[in-house]
Amino acid sequence: MSLRLHSTLTGHDEPLVAGDDGVVGIYACGPTVYSRIHIGNARPFVVFSVLKRYLERRGMRARLVINVTDVNDKIYDAARAEGIPSTRLAERCTRQYIDDTNLLGLGRPDAEPLVTGCMDDIVALIGNLVDRDLAYAVGGDVYFRVRAFPAYGCLSGRHLDDMPDDDPGERKEDSLDFALWKGLKDGEDAWWDSPWGPGRPGWHIECSAMAERELGMGFAVHGGGIDLAFPHHENEIAQSEGAHGAPFARIWMHNEMLELAEGKMSKSIGNIALLVDVVGRWGPDTVIAYFMQSHYRSRLPFSDDRLGEAEAACRRIRNAVRGLDRAVGSAGDEADPALTAAMIDARTRFVDCMDDDFGTPGAMAAVFDLVRAINQALERGSPPRGQVLEVRLGLVGLLDMLGLAGLAVPGAGDEVPEDIRDLVRRREEARGARDFAGADALRAEITARGFELRDGADGPEVVAAT
RNA sequence: GGCGACCUGGCGAAGUGGGAACGCAUCGGUCUGCAAAACCGACAUGAGUGGGUUCGACUCCCACGGUCGCCUCCA
Predict the structure, then answer these.
(1) How far is the CA of A253 from the C1' of B7 (A)?
(2) Left, alpha or beta for A194 (phi > 0: left; psi -120 to 50: alpha)?
(3) CB < 7 Å to strand B — which of 133-162 in chain A?
């Protein structure tokens, strides 16, 4: 069974196949760096990072490329508003983007090209298109001649005849044509030389150039938010396939948008929640679980309630791991066959779901079924140490494929300070003396300090309140 | 106006032409000095509405209603 992914290009699930070098090349459009990224921007980062992770855990080789757009009108505007050079703003925001996404603990992409670092590739690609008469220079700008590329519209299902036929303005031959190179204008403080004069690349050409440079033509997966399908990805196809006469990307994988009560989250609307704030408040595991519990092609409501549910779900998994860790010490000697069966069943269902268009919700469901089986087994008796360790390893293996292995790691919050331990001891003494009023006062004190007391059969347990 | 998606229990959310996963919440139980936490169990005779195809549809087709996205910057 191989992994299949839904492609926007065909409207169907397509088999994922590695390139000739055995590597699955994945390119995802990254952020434009003019402010901190919001939680919506994080969705493709999480989706494609976890996709790569899953492929590698399944023994495939994958190369993930997520670019950084560090030249753009919005960067000029934001820098002007701040009164600093646009290059400085872009550098600062790029660093923040790296810092913020690092908080997720999903690792870095294999390559994160900057537009400013690929100017030669971009100029060469534009030159190629001009040579082929697919582009024309006029007054310092260069435009792509859309009607000269017959397949235009193949990705978004649009037909040229349906497109609005506006006034093309003074420079463009046709209103549909889009800019490959924008000549330097007043107020722009960063520019590059080109055969057509000083200026900067258009928004779409950069991704064509960077994807080809990092992955070659005909790579496996090109991704990004569904809102980029048109015109951005449509234009990328026109540029790259126009220049080479060869397929650009085989599967176009688009994630849906985050949704708020007021509509989708967008910098333009201003209803944003910054990734750094969301992760800071809920922690990386909750944020990743929040994404993984819905399918990447579904719109996903964003709210405190949703994150709160994800947190509760994470807690359920953490508790099962804690249960296993406790069971290692009190192990019996009779293996629990139902537990082993549940382990195998969960792994099979997990992989089936993941292979079917990256079905992370079904994969999560498989994890929860295993969690219940673990809890039931531990309630029934004490499985032997070997089985406990095997199941723990299996569970962590599944979590790791989703980027959630952190749920099995005792967090820093689990380290209980000595003064708290002392309060617990004093409460136990009070309880032993049947001084329940004193015991309850001490419990309130522990709670007030941000810890949660859990009385169990083996005595009290203290964990950091979440 | 053009293109497209979606409508599943209180909420979120999957899969599937023939038993409607999973999570949250709720309720019942176990545990406890009492709680909390944790765990266990229960929880949609039904999938926006109306037709059609089929032995049989939530799952396919059509219509209607509703929600939303793209068509301009957007993950």
Answers:
(1) 24
(2) beta
(3) 156-158, 162
Q: Per-residue pLDDT for A415 more than 80?
A: no
In tens, the pLDDT along A289-312 reads 999 999 999 989 898 889 999 999
Kindly report the CATH number that applies to the domain delimited by A4-278.
Answer: 3.40.50.620
Residue A390 to residue A319: CA distance in whole angstroms = 17
Strand B contact at CB of residue A299, distance < 7 A? yes
**From the C1' of B34, which residue's alpha carbon is nearest?**
A436
Span A213-223, pLDDT tens digits? 999 999 999 99
**Which nucleotide lies nearest residue A289, CA to C1'?**
B23
CA of A361 to C1' of B12 (A): 12
User: Tokens 């809920």 correspond to what residue?
Assistant: A282
Every domain of chain A and the residues it spans: 4-278, 304-409, 413-464
Longest dimension (CA), chain A: 92
* CB burial of residue A277 (10 Å; 0-12, 13-18, 19+): middle
Q: Is the CB of A439 under 7 A from strand B?
A: yes
Q: Which residues of A327-458 form beta strands (DSSP E)? A: 451-456
> Tell me, what's the ipTM?
0.92
Q: Strand B and chain A: which residues 394-433 have CB closer than 7 Å?
A: 431
What does the alpha-carbon distance between residue A416 and residue A320 come to, in Å, rounded to a whole number? 20
pLDDT at A432: 85
Q: Which two tokens stand for residue A43?
A: 């969705």
Contact A381, A332 (CB under 8 A): yes
Identify the pLDDT of residue A248: 94
The mean predicted confidence, pLDDT, of chain A is 90
pLDDT computed for residue A168 by the predictor: 67
Nearest nucleotide, CA A31 to C1':
B75
Long-range contacts of A367-370, Cβ-Cβ distance < 8 Å, separation of 24 or more? A367/A317, A367/A395, A367/A398, A367/A399, A367/A402, A368/A313, A368/A316, A368/A317, A369/A342, A369/A345, A370/A342, A370/A343, A370/A346, A370/A394, A370/A395, A370/A398
Q: Assign A261 a pLDDT band (cuts: 50, 70, 90).
A: low
Topology at the third CATH level for domain A304-409: Four Helix Bundle (Hemerythrin (Met), subunit A) (1.20.120)
Q: Is A216 helix (H, G, I), strand (E, B) or coil?
A: coil
Nucleotide nearest to A361 (CA to C1'): B14
